[in-house]
């Protein structure tokens, strides 16, 4: 690197998400990578000490010379060096939060697997999160020092094969697998033992790096992971820009505190800069506020984030989740940078030309739901008792065909169209079960606390209802009395004017109640057919005469098996209609 370039060197930041089951050695690996890189590659560089190890809050970084494939990009060299920022995700709930929060800016995923234990529950969950949020992955088999030396190579090859088999059906098929010992002897061992395989891992990461797509446009959204004050200067927030850009003198909003602040200075790679954009890891100094109020959170363009009490999302079940996805169940919903409990209502498109109830599930082959990406209030949807299986598989790329209404237990602040993941985080962490249940995108948010009254009536989700009763008797050629369709206490006025059909084919309209026991009067506009009258007169005679013998026998014998004439009522009821009206199409 020439001296003139060195004074104004441009560094490309490349974010690597470090994921893995608890105790797979993620933190040791991040530490080994940082220290190996800074001692090996940069002693000759005057800025090596400045760049050093910035291991704080799960973000460590190390810088390497720009790999050849990046030098050739676009025929000219935009950058002088490459910085890897390792986004370590400690603990599980925060793993989901961190990764989903940082999903837009993770360029490569490093899945750390304990070579002795192999794929564990959380490893599988990490894989899923990776599939939802990232295009590339490297698998690191850690702790190879625990394998007996004479069986080591064999065990590594066996586990490598097993990993490739696990990844076969994912987007990370054929991804590189490398074996290391980040901290030989375990966390308590003295630091005298050199890590094994780490220089090779650095070379692999360099080889896997590419020029990420970064977009400075759109509203600013920055994930803050640390906050502290500097006397006389202001409060510093460090974090990663998830979208948009910022510059000195911009005003930003801290939604959690409901305040706006002016940017006084910005630092990147420990050097002052005038501006920063998506993917950059920065420190931003703003006018003073108490840093204890914002340990973690988001900063954004004023007014760009919305605080939601409920939301409609597209939804797709995660194939590895073994539980049911039932309407009215509660799930942990990770949205934006928060995880909150919510009650879920599933709904879908009516089956084309079908009159069956919406809970009917079809096999994928006979599925008639048209694919529809965009949710709109202008169409009708069917209520589902649960997510309809057969529509979604983990990470399938097709458009969502089902939606869910999420009703949050407390309001959440998030950008629109952000990724949403539903999980059952209260499941035992040691149970061998995937806790990620569904994923989707936030399509419509409700900011009004009274959304149930103000917004939900616009959401036309209906239940198909079917009732069946019997004709009790004929009053005249155009009128019959029915029974067993309603309970005694039902308010029959709600049903007046609805159309019914008789099992004999005639159509009629409910005119009103008859007596006090839930019976009702039906007007048959076209009049009863002669054969219907015959059936009804014979059944009523049979009832009237009981088992009497005599001249009736021959007339009634063919009718001994005859069914009473039944009355069928079909209607729709909209789940969120405050008036609970019955509607017939």
Automatic annotation (TrEMBL):
UniProtKB keywords: Cytoplasm, Elongation factor, GTP-binding, Hydrolase, Methylation, Nucleotide-binding, Nucleus, Phosphoprotein, Protein biosynthesis
Keyword Coiled coil: no
GO CC terms in record: cytoplasm; nucleus
Reaction it catalyzes: GTP + H2O = GDP + phosphate + H(+)
Domain Tr-type G, residue spans: 11-213
Classification via InterPro entries: eEFSec_C, eEFSec_III, EF-Tu_GTPase, EFTu-like_2, P-loop_NTPase, Small_GTP-bd, T_Tr_GTP-bd_dom, Transl_B-barrel_sf
Primary location recorded for the protein, binned into one broad class: cytoplasm
Compartment list: Cytoplasm; Nucleus
One function term, GO molecular function aspect: GTP binding
Region (Disordered): 533-566
Required co-factors: Mg(2+); Mn(2+)
Biological process according to GO: selenocysteine incorporation
Pfam families xrefs: eEFSec_4th, euk_SelB_III, GTP_EFTU, GTP_EFTU_D2
Keyword Nucleotide-binding carried by entry: yes
NCBIfam families named among the record's database cross-references: small_GTP
Cited function: Translation factor required for the incorporation of the rare amino acid selenocysteine encoded by UGA codons. Replaces the eRF1-eRF3-GTP ternary complex for the insertion of selenocysteine directed by the UGA codon. Insertion of selenocysteine at UGA codons is mediated by SECISBP2 and EEFSEC: SECISBP2 (1) specifically binds the SECIS sequence once the 80S ribosome encounters an in-frame UGA codon and (2) contacts the RPS27A/eS31 of the 40S ribosome before ribosome stalling.
Protein name according to UniProt: Selenocysteine-specific elongation factor
Organism: Channa argus (Northern snakehead)
């Amino acid at each position: 690197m020439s001296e003139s370039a060195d004074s104004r060197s441009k560094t490309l930041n490349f974010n690597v998400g470090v994921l893995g089951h608890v105790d797979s050695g993620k933190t040791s690996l991040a530490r080994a990578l940082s220290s190996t890189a800074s001692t090996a590659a940069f002693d000759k560089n005057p800025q090596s000490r400045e760049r050093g190890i910035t291991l704080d809050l799960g973000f460590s970084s190390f810088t390497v010379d720009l790999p050849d494939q990046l030098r050739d990009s676009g025929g000219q060299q935009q950058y002088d060096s490459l910085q890897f920022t390792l986004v370590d995700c400690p603990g599980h709930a925060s793993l989901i939060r961190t990764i989903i929060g940082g999903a837009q800016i993770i360029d490569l995923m490093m899945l750390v697997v304990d070579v002795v234990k192999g794929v564990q529950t959380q490893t599988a969950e990490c894989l899923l999160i990776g599939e939802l949020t990232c295009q590339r992955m490297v698998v690191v088999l850690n702790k190879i020092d625990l394998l007996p030396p004479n069986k080591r190579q064999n065990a590594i090859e066996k586990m490598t094969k097993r990993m490739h088999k696990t990844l076969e059906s994912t987007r990370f098929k054929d991804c590189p697998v490398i074996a290391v010992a980040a901290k030989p002897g375990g966390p308590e061992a003295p630091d005298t033992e050199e890590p094994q395989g780490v220089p090779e891992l650095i070379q692999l990461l360099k080889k896997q790096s590419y020029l990420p797509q970064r977009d400075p446009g759109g509203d600013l959204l920055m994930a803050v992971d640390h906050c502290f004050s500097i006397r006389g200067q202001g409060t510093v927030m460090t974090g990663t820009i998830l979208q948009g850009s910022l510059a000195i003198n911009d005003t930003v909003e801290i939604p959690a505190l409901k305040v706006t602040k002016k940017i006084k200075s910005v630092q990147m790679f420990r050097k002052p800069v005038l501006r920063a954009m998506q993917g950059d890891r920065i420190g931003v100094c703003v006018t003073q506020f108490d840093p204890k109020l914002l340990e973690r959170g988001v900063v954004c363009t004023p007014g760009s984030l919305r605080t939601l009490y409920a939301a409609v999302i597209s939804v797709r079940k995660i194939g590895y989740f073994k539980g049911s996805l039932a309407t009215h169940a509660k799930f942990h919903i990770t949205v934006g940078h928060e995880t909150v409990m919510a009650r879920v209502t599933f709904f879908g498109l009516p089956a084309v030309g079908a009159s069956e109830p919406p809970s009917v599930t079809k096999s994928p082959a006979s599925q008639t739901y048209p694919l529809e990406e965009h949710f709109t209030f202008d169409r009708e949807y069917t209520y589902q008792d649960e997510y309809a299986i057969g529509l979604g598989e983990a990470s399938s790329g097709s458009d969502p065909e089902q939606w869910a209404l999420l009703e949050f237990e407390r309001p959440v602040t998030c950008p629109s169209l952000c990724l949403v993941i539903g999980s059952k985080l209260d499941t035992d962490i040691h149970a061998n079960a995937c806790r990620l249940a569904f994923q989707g995108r936030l399509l419509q948010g409700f900011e009004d606390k009274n959304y149930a009254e103000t917004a939900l009536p616009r959401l036309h989700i209906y239940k198909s209802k079917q009732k069946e009763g019997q004709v009790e008797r004929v009053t005249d050629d155009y009128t019959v009395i029915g029974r067993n369709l309603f309970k005694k206490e039902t308010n029959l006025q709600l049903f007046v004017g609805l159309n019914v059909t008789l099992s004999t084919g005639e159509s009629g309209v409910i005119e009103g109640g008859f007596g006090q026991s839930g019976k009702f009067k039906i007007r048959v506009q076209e009049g009863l057919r002669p054969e219907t009258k015959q059936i009804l007169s014979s059944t009523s005679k049979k009832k009237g005469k009981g088992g009497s013998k005599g001249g009736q026998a021959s007339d009634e014998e063919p009718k001994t098996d005859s069914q009473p004439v039944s009355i069928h009522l079909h209607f729709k009821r909209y789940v969120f209609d405050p008036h609970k009206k019955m509607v017939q199409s």
